[in-house]
Design brief:
- The complex is a heterotetramer, with two copies of chain A and two copies of chain B.
- In chain A, strand 3 and strand 4 form a beta hairpin.
- Chain A is globular, with a radius of gyration of 11 Å.
- Chain A is α+β, with helices and mostly antiparallel strands.
- Helices cover 27% and strands 23% of the residues of chain A.
- The model of chain A has no long low-confidence stretch (mean pLDDT 97).
- Chain B is an alpha+beta fold.
- Chain B has four helices and nine strands.
- The longest helix of chain B has 18 residues.
- The model of chain B has no long low-confidence stretch (mean pLDDT 95).
- The chains are: A alpha+beta, B alpha+beta.
- Chains B and C meet through helix 1, strand 2 and helix 3 of B and helix 1, strand 2 and helix 3 of C.
- Strand 2 of chain B pairs antiparallel with strand 2 of chain C.
Chain lengths: 83, 153, 153, 83
């Protein structure tokens, strides 16, 4: 599963994207965030408050409840500031 | 039409491309967003816009489609720049053309409101105190929400 | 700034004159009104705008002052043409600049709404069936009224 | 008193402006409209429905109740169609 980070999430995690293989049981965006946070370090800082994190699954905005699966592209980022 | 680019754009030329020769347009509304040299009471020397390439075009095309579904529009243009911009530089241009002004004005406001919260861009300001990510404004959520249709809630 | 003239204007140049070098502007909203080649289901070959010279400038200056009082604006431009215009020609340009987009967008809509009902212009269309004065639209009164403050009613 | 006509009021009256001297008793915009209408011809046609007529006194929009006096410039016209 490809995970991309943007904005201050990227700054805090320290990388822009990575390939991850979350264990069985990590089935949603929210589950992925919790799993990443548990890695500690920059991840723990970036995902300290999950309510601040927005997500996209395969380039579509998705809520934390959205299901994810092997092969998906998941992006995690702060609220967008376009315009 | 959607364009996501690092290069600057020419507002007059872009508007002219929409209106020239189209004798059915009654009004064209536009919004031009610029980099300011301050944020709060701090000076800004530059702003770097990061975006999510494969998603950006998709989201902007959705916004255009949504505007065209809600209003009778003859043309829609969204140009959004990314990369490093200095104060005074153009960031974004939204232009909508319609037979009557109401559709043009409303759809232009709609598009810029939704761009603020639904277009995957993030802004990093170079402040005197160092780089700082622009945080989303509460008012922008409120402004975006007023366009949500009751049936979509 | 107010301009009432027979000559055409250059939208890009006018907008550039407002934004160039002003690093405090965050957004510029504009509305460009054009002569359409139809009215209802009739073709129009030209439109002649008559106005009341001594009153026009006075009214437009009042509109600008009203907009500046209601919103924090860095610039206001209203250019309104009069005389004979052909389909596709520019009639009016309203542009407002502000630190934030809300003030720019709202004041631009306000100005064009009030121009429709409070600026002393009258439009004579050259239709296939002969010359015909444009009648005020009910919707224009409604649009203008939404900007009336309760305290002024 | 200088009276100006615009839009279809001008077309119907047939002239763009004129000097008039209404008699005592014509003290308001509405009174002036009635007095002009009574002249017949194009005036009667133009002012057939007074509710359609808008006015300005000395370049300021004025209601039909507005008082007018010698030396004023009064303009009579259909609803404005600017923009």
């Amino acid at each position: 599963m490809q995970v991309l980070y943007f904005g201050w999430v990227k700054s805090k995690v320290g990388i822009g994207q990575e390939q991850v293989s979350p264990p069985d049981g990590v089935e949603s965006v929210g589950g992925l965030i919790d799993w990443l946070k548990a890695r500690g370090g920059g991840y723990e800082v970036a995902f300290a408050d999950a309510s601040e994190i927005r997500a996209a699954v395969n380039h579509e905005i998705a809520p934390h409840e959205a299901l994810i699966k092997e092969g998906d592209e998941v992006a995690l980022f702060p609220p967008m500031t376009g315009g | 039409m959607i364009r996501v680019q690092t290069e600057d754009f020419d507002v007059g030329a872009e508007i002219g491309r929409i209106t020239d020769g189209n004798l059915e347009i009654g009004g064209l509304a536009s919004f031009l967003g610029l980099v300011r040299d301050f944020a709060g009471d701090e000076k800004i020397s530059a702003m770097t816009l990061e975006h999510y390439p494969r998603m950006t075009e998709k989201q902007l095309e959705k916004l255009e489609a949504e505007a065209r579904e809600r209003w009778e529009l003859q043309d829609v243009l969204i140009i959004h720049r990314f990369g490093r911009l200095e104060p005074g530089e153009r960031i974004v241009l939204v232009a909508t053309a319609a037979p009557h002004r109401e559709a043009a004005l409303e759809s232009c406001a709609f598009l810029i409101d939704w761009l603020k919260t639904k277009a995957p861009f993030w802004k990093l300001e170079d402040r005197e105190t160092g780089p700082s990510w622009v945080t989303a404004r509460e008012e922008d959520e409120v402004a975006a929400d007023r366009w949500v249709r009751v049936s979509d809630k």
